[in-house]
Amino acid sequence: MTIDTSASSSRRTEVLAGISTFLATMYIIVVNPSILSQAGLPFSGVLTATILLSFFCSLMMGLYARNPIVVAPGMGLNAFFTFTAVKGMGIQPEVALGAVFWAGILFLIMSLLNVRSAIVHIIPLPIRYAVSAGIGLFITLIGFENARFIIANPATLVGIAHLTDPIVLTFIVGLLLTSVLVVRDVPGGIIIGIIVTTLAAWPIGRYWGDASAINFGQKTLVNFQGVWAAPDFSLLGKLDLKNSLTWSLWPIIFAFAFTDLFDSLSTFVGVAEAGGLQDENGQPRNLNRSLLTDAVSTTLAGIVGTSPGTAYIESAVGIAQGGRTGLTAIVAGSCFLPFLFLSPLLSVIPSIATAPALVLVGAFMMKPVVRIDWGQLDDALPAFLALVLIPFSYSITQGLVWGFLSWTVIKLAVGKSREVPIGLLIVDAFCILALIAGH
Fold it and tell me: What's 311's DSSP letter?
C-alpha cells in the first residue's frame, strides 16, 4: 500500500516528524515495564512486548489508517492493570492479560459496528476544542514534571523547583533553544533541541550537580549501559483466556474497554483539531480505520503480554514537526524495533531532553480554544471543565466525562434539549457507570 504524502509535507519532513514522535514516546519502552513489573510480570518480557506492540500497531496506523499517530501501551491503563486489577483485586497477571484481550475483542466489535465512530460524531464541538487544548496542557504538565521543573509542594500542592538546580537550568536552556529553533522554522528543530539538551545534560552527575542527579533518581542523567540485550519473549501467549472470561472479571474488562475508549477518542479528536487532520465533514481523518487499529492494539496487547495499547497524545510532537501522513507513524514505529536488541541505548537520552518538546506541543495544541464562544456560557462552562480537568485530574478521561455530563445538565436546565442528542445521553450513562466503577 502506498503512502499518500500531501503537497504541504515532504518525505523528509515526514521522516523527521516520525523520529521526533519516537523520541517523545520512547520513554514507554522503559516506563511501561517498570510499572507492569510491579504486577509480577518480568521486566524484560514486558519491555519486549511493549516494543512489539508499538512497532506493529504504529505500522498499522500508518499503512492502514494513514494517520501520523503512534500506538503504544497506554499510560494510566498500565497503572490500572497493576494497582487496581492485580494488586488491588488480587487477580493473577496472566488472568489480567486475558481481560485485556477480551476488552480488545469488545473494541473490535464496537469498531466494526461503528459504535465508537458514532460516539465521536455526537461530541459537541466546544467539547472537542476544549479537549484538544486540555490535552495540550496535559502534555505540557508531563513535560514540566519530567524535567522536575514543576514539583510537589506540601503548602501549595504544586510549585516550581529551585532555579539553581542544574537539571532545571539545563531544561530551561533546552526549552529556550528549542523554542527559538521552532519559531525560526529550522528543519528538524525539535530533534536538534533534544540532541543539544542531551549533550547539555551529560555533565550533570559527572562534573557538577551530583546531588541533583541523585535526587532525580540517577547517579548521572546520561548513562551508557551497553549496546546489546537479547529480547525476552516469555510473555508471548501467556494470557489466561478461560479464567479471565468469568462474571467476576467483567467489571475489569469493562473498565479497560471504557477507559481506552475515551482515551483514544479524545486523542484522535484533540490531535485532529490541533493538526488540521479532519476530513471534508470536519471529523478526524480516517476515523474508522484509526479506531479499528486502536482496537487491534488492545487485543494484541493481551497476546504479547502488556497492558492495553492506545493512540498516543505525544504524536502531537511529530505533527507539530510537520507530520501529516501515515509515513510519520511508520517511521516512528520502525524506530521501536531495533530496541528489541538495543534497549540499553535508551538510557542515553534523559527525560529532560524530551521535556522541552512536550512543553512546546502544549502551545501548539491551544489553537482550537479560540473557536469556543466564551460569551455563550452554556457552551463555555462545560468546555472549560473539560479543558482544565484533563491536566488537573491527570486524566484525559475525567476531563471528557465531566465535559459530557456538565454539557447535558446545563443544556437541559436552560431549555436547550435539542443540543443533547439521544446518543449523548447514552454516553452520559456510561460516564456515570465509569465514575461509579472508579470508586
Answer: E
Distance CA 352, CA 172 (A): 10
Question: Angle 317-319-320 (CA atoms, 0-180°, nearest 5)?
Answer: 65
Query: Across the strands, what pairs with 412?
Result: none
pLDDT (tens digit, 0 to 9) for every residue of the chain, 439 residues total? 444 444 356 888 899 999 988 988 887 887 788 789 889 999 889 999 999 999 999 999 999 999 999 999 987 788 778 887 898 888 999 999 999 999 999 888 887 887 766 776 788 889 988 887 887 888 888 889 888 899 988 889 889 988 888 888 999 999 999 999 989 978 778 878 888 988 888 877 555 555 555 555 555 566 666 678 888 899 999 999 989 988 878 878 877 887 777 777 777 877 777 677 877 777 788 878 888 898 899 999 999 999 999 888 888 888 888 888 899 999 999 999 999 988 777 667 777 888 888 888 788 788 889 989 999 999 999 999 999 998 898 777 788 889 999 999 999 999 999 999 988 898 888 788 767 765 5
- Classified as helix, coil or strand, 167 is helix
Name residue, grid cell 540517577: 218
| C-beta of residue 393 within 8 angstroms of C-beta of residue 136 | no
3-state secondary structure of 123: coil
Contact predicate 126/387, CB 8 Å: no
The closest alpha carbon to 394, from 139, 126, 160, 82, belongs to 139
Alpha-carbon distance values, 433 to 67, 146, 252, 263 (Å): 32, 33, 13, 16
CA distances from 217 to 8, 145, 205, 211, 224 (A): 43, 14, 11, 10, 16
Neighbours of 372 (CB within 10 A): 20
